[in-house]
Structures are given as structure tokens and as C-alpha cells.
Design a protein that fits this description.
This protein is α+β, with helices and mostly antiparallel strands. The chain folds into 2 domains: about 1-180 and about 295-380, Aminopeptidase (3-Layer(aba) Sandwich); about 185-295, Alpha-Beta Plaits, CATH 3.30.70. About 30% of the residues lie in helices and about 25% in strands. It has 9 helices and 19 strands. The protein has a 6-stranded mixed beta sheet with strand order 1-2-6-3-7-18, with helices on both faces. A 4-stranded antiparallel beta sheet has the order 12-14-10-15. Strand 1 (about 40-45) and strand 2 (about 50-55) form a beta hairpin. Helix 1 packs across helix 3, helix 3 packs across helix 9 and helix 5 (about 205-220) crosses helix 6. The longest helix is centred in the N-terminal third of the chain and has 21 residues, at about 100-120. The chain is elongated, with a radius of gyration of 24 Å. The structure holds zinc ion.
Length: about 375
Amino acid sequence: MISHCSSIEILRDLIKFKSVTPDDAGSLNYIAQLVIELGGSVQRIDRNNTTNLIATLGDGDKIFAFAGHVDVVPTGNIELWKNKDPFTLLQDGDDLYGRGVADMKGSIAAFLVALAEFVKNKHQTDYKVMLVITSDEEGDAVDGTPVLVEYLQHNNIRLDYCLVGEPSCVDRLGDTIKVGRRGSLTGAFIIHGKQGHIAYPHLCKNPIHDFAPALAELTSICWDNGNQYFPATSLQFANINCGLGVTNVIPGELKANFNFRYNTEHSADDLMNKTTSIFDKYNLDYEINWQNSAQPFLTQEGDFIPLIHRAIYDVTGVMPQNKTDGGTSDGRFLIHVSEQIIEFGLRNHSIHQINEATTLSDLNNLTKIYYNLLNYIFEI
Ligand SMILES: [Zn+2]
């Protein structure tokens, strides 16, 4: 029975499932079974090779959702792991090792135990808690959270509070929550020139020379200064390829790509228009393809930030910082069905690494924080 389990026991079970993305390896059935034991209902929404779970407890109007993923990245060379077996939880003093302990089976275990305690102590069912869990966060993220979001939209379900259990902390548990994320926009382009002998430049068109002033302008623009929650928008080139590898030919074309990490001061359209206006200003003959893989998002203002700050401070004595840095997360999809959305989980210092680690004390404290949070949300 989950009501008699500690988070480390649940985590030990979860680590055993070899759920390398997008295979949940049976872990979603395990979670579903625990929710059913607590009196909840479950719904599977699978697509292609991805498995997804929505679980619901309680019948109140206000909805708090915990969102996350059971899939993990591959282990790498298992010989380099301390116990040569990343799918068996290793406890060494306070340290816990295993693939997914921090990203993010630890926070799922903590949340399940917090939820069991909350349900046991709450005599009315005037709350609604949902779990929104996928097996495709570490992979393409196409058949995972977007499918769950579609399901919620189709059923007119809006989440008043959505907590994404991603590992958000840096140096110690409680130091960081994520209140949004930057957008990511990639541009890949070709600039056409005319190839020819380097001694006869008047018969050629050199795409390196054509592009150079545009490159200088693009990389010296101050796109914005950031805002209260976000750092400044940044453009970085990742590749520029040109030339035949010889010394006597002017090349016929230049291929390059770059990426914007952008904040809520811009839309992707703004950035695309500004970029192409610079290409046009220098009369470049170009083709460009854009991929906007993530919109920036920011939680709505409300009581969620103060409540989670209080829940964290009461357990750890640490007052968290509100951040938006790092890569993208499934929060970019969940924002479409959430009023207030925050990411908070374990420390992220070892995620995706060999010997991914957390500690038993962090796991237990995270469980207490999640428990406090459920009480604070449904008392108000
Ligand atoms: Zn993760």
C-alpha cells in the first residue's frame, strides 16, 4: 500500500523500470495502480510508441496538477556507474544513484508519497489533484505532453496550478524555481553567389563577402535588455560552411545556421522579420528556413509563487530565486492549459550524466515541500 511507503521505496521501484525514452517499460501502470489505491481514476492516452497518463483524485473545482515524465536518457557506459547497474537504486550514505533519480523519478516518487499523505489526512474531497505524466519528454516530445494538452483542451479542463517536477535547483534544494522559459528559434539559410577563379573576381559573386556585413550587424545588435524575469535575447551562430577546400576558387554558396534564445519581449515573427530585413538591406540572394521549436512562456501572476516560496522556506529555510534560464521544457506546452505554472524539483547538477545522483535528505525534504504545497493550495 502506498500509504505505508516512503519516497525512497517508491523511487527504488521506479528506477527498476528501464524506461529509456519513449518506452515507459511498465512504469505508468505502476503509477496508475498507486493512484487507484488512493481512490483516484486513471486514463491512458497513448500515441505511436509513447505512453501517457492522466490521473485524477478528488472532486473539487480548483485543480492542482503535477506534470512530469517517466522516461530517461540512455545510461552511457554502465561500467562507469558506481554499481555497474543504473537501473538499481544505489544508496551510499545519504547519496542515491541511478538513472532518473533527479530527472525526474525522484520528484514523481516524492509527489506520490506527498499525495498519499495529503489524501489520508484530508477528510473532505473538496480538492482536485491531477497527474499529467508522459514517456516522451527526453525524446521528440511530439506524442507526449502535446497529446495530453490536446486531451485537456478537448475536455475543457484548465489547470489552476501546474507544478512541473523537473529538477530546477542548482546548489541546494530550494534555491531555484522556474517561472517560465525562453523561446528557441533556429534559422538555417543558403546565400547564393557565383563560383569562379579567384584571380577573376569580376566574373564571380563571393557569398562570403556578401554575407560579412550582415553577419557583423546580426551579431552586434542588442535585441533587448531582458525584463524582470528574463535575460536578454541572444543570437548565436552554430555553423557557417563555405568553400571548396582549395585556395583558388571563389565559392558558389554559403550555408549557415543560428539560434535565438528569446524572451517575452519578442514574438518569433518579430525576430524573423528583423533578421530578413538585414539580409535584404545587404541585397543577399538567400533562402532561409525557420524552426520555432519553443515559444517563450511566463506563469501568470497570482498566489502560486508565494505559496511555493512558503512551502520551500518552511522545510529548507531557503528562499528560492525565480528563474527562466536553461533549455526548454514541457512547460512550453502546458502553459496553454495552465493559469499558473512553475517548475520545481531536485538539484540538476548531475542530470543526464554517468552516476546521476540525488540525496535521501533532499528526496525526503522535497516530499515535505510537495505535501505542504498541497495543503497550502487547498486550504485557501
Ligand atoms: Zn526532465
